[in-house]
Each structure stands twice: as C-alpha cells, then as structure tokens.
C-alpha cells in the first residue's frame, strides 16, 4: 500500500463548477498536508498547506484535513480555465500523491 | 525575484551513457532538493542539501546517481550509467531552510526532462 493515494483522474468540469480533489494516506504520524498545482512542463507550486486537522481557506481554494479518516480534500470554487493543471497532495513536504489532472472547460 | 534555474531543459541519451543536470537555486536559499518525477507519478525526493552538506540521500540510487553542491549554491546531479527506467523529469527545488518540525515553502524549477533510449 502506498503511503499517499490520489485518484489520477482525469477530471473535466465546466467553468464555474466546484471541484473536489482528494487524497488518502496511511501514516497517522503525518502532520503537514500540502496541495501543489503543476502546470504542464512546469514545476509544482505550493497552493496552501494545513497543519493537523481542520480547514483553511485562501480565496477560491479551501483545504480540509480529517486526520481521523486519514483523508484530505481541496475544494476549488468558481473554477476557471486557468485552474486547468495537475493537483498534487503532499504529506510532511516530501510524500507526494500521483496527482489529479483537472481540465476546466470554458 | 528570479526563480530556480535548471539546465538543460531536455536531454535524450542512450542507456549506459552518462548525463548531468545543473541547478541554480533562489539566492539566499540554504536548502536545495533534487526530485525525480516519473510520468504519471508524484515527485520522489532523491537528495536534500543544507548549504553544502547532505541532509537526506536515502532514496538516491548511489550505485549510479551522484550529486554535489559545491560552495552551498549551485548543484549538479549526475547519472552514470543511465538505465531506461531513469527516464523522468528531474526537478530541483530550494527553500530558505529545513528545520525539523517546520514547513519551509519549496520553490521548484521547471525541471529537466530526460529520455533514455
């Protein structure tokens, strides 16, 4: 079993939709939960991170962590074509999921 | 602020050949990381430097991969000899620091796409 599991998609949504991206993990010792965005032919860029459980909001993005279920989510409200990218979750900075490819259709 | 620079951007070599990648981190960043990202997978940490010392190289295949960070700034990653399974994007990242128990944002370069034929 991989330490971090992420549905690779691809996910395709119309512009303005709410997007839900998810990861599960097996190591209960993880404390930091990150979300990265990676555009094609680019390196990942950090969107936001959360320490321990709870929610964090930044503009159209909301990250949620449920440590009891070992489950994290990223919600994107009012999705835009510019959100089209691969979204990677990461635990404690170094344990990455495989990424979910998202396309927002105008 | 200039970002993390990497070169070359693309490289095609035959198996058993050697190859080297170069990384210039963001000025003032003490910590430098090399990752391997195979198509369809997340980045895998190969090695982490703090200034010019190695912090973690537990996932670096040391029989064929080597890395150095002379003078605590630029870094090179070498593969010798290359295998087909080394085909991947090699990402360099840097951060201000790397204290245990703290999060320092990693800034990634664009990567070097290696194809081994």
Write up this protein:
The complex is a heterodimer of chains A (106) and B (117). Chain A has strands spanning 4-6, 11-14, 19-25, 32-38, 45-51, 54-58, 61-66, 71-76, 85-91, 95-96, 100-105. Chain A is an all-beta fold and 106 residues long. In chain A, the strands form two sheets. In chain A, strands 2, 4, 5, 9, 10 and 11 form a six-stranded mixed β-sheet that branches. Chain A has a five-stranded antiparallel β-sheet with strand order 1-3-8-7-6, with no helix packed on it. Chain A is globular and about 40 Å long. The termini of chain B are far apart. Helix content of chain B is 0%, strand content 47%. With 117 residues, chain B is an all-beta fold. In chain B, strands 2, 4, 5, 6, 9, 10 and 11 form a seven-stranded mixed β-sheet that branches. A four-stranded antiparallel β-sheet of chain B has the order 1-3-8-7, with no helix packed on it. Chain B has strands spanning 5-7, 10-13, 19-24, 31-37, 44-50, 53-56, 65-68, 75-79, 88-95, 107-108, 112-116.
Number of helices of chain B: 0
Number of helices of chain A: 0
Give the biggest beta sheet of chain A.
Answer: 6 strands, mixed
Instruction: Give the percentage of residues in beta strands of chain A.
Output: over 45%
How many strands of chain A? 11
Name the helix and strand elements of chain A from N-terminus to C-terminus, one letter apiece: EEEEEEEEEEE
In whole angstroms, the N-to-C terminal distance of chain A is 37 Å
Structural class by helix and strand composition of chain A: mainly beta
What percentage of the residues of chain B does DSSP assign to strands (E)? over 45%
Sheet having the most strands of chain B: 7 strands, mixed
- Mean of residue pLDDT values of chain B: 94
Q: What assembly state would you assign to the polypeptide chains in this entry?
A: heterodimer
| Computed CA radius of gyration of chain B, to the nearest angstrom | 14 Å
**Succession of helices and strands of chain B:** EEEEEEEEEEE
Which protein chains make the most extensive interface, counting residues with beta carbons within 8 Å of the other chain's beta carbons? A-B, 21 and 17 residues
Give the % helix of chain A. under 10%
- What ranges of chain A have pLDDT less than 50 throughout 5 or more consecutive residues? none
How would the global form of chain B be characterised? globular
């Amino acid at each position: 079993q991989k330490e971090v599991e992420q549905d690779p998609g691809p996910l395709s949504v119309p512009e303005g939709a709410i997007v839900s991206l998810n990861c599960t993990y097996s190591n209960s010792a993880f404390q930091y939960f990150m979300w990265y965005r990676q555009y094609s032919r680019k390196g990942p860029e950090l969107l936001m991170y959360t320490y321990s459980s709870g929610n964090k909001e930044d503009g159209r993005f909301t990250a949620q962590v449920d440590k009891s279920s070992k489950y994290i989510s990223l919600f994107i409200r009012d999705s835009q074509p510019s959100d089209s990218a691969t979204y990677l979750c990461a635990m404690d900075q170094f344990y990455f999921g495989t990424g979910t490819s998202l396309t927002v259709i105008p | 602020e200039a970002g993390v620079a990497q070169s070359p951007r693309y490289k095609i070599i035959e198996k058993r050949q050697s190859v080297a990648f170069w990384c210039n981190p963001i000025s003032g960043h003490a910590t430098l990381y090399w990752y391997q990202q195979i198509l369809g997978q997340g980045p895998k940490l190969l090695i982490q430097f703090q200034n010019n010392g190695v912090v973690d190289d537990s996932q670096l295949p040391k029989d064929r991969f080597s890395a150095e960070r002379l003078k605590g700034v630029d870094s090179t990653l070498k593969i010798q000899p290359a295998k087909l399974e080394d085909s991947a994007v090699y990402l360099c990242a840097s951060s201000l620091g790397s204290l245990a128990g703290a999060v320092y944002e990693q800034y990634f370069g664009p990567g070097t796409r290696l194809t081994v034929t």
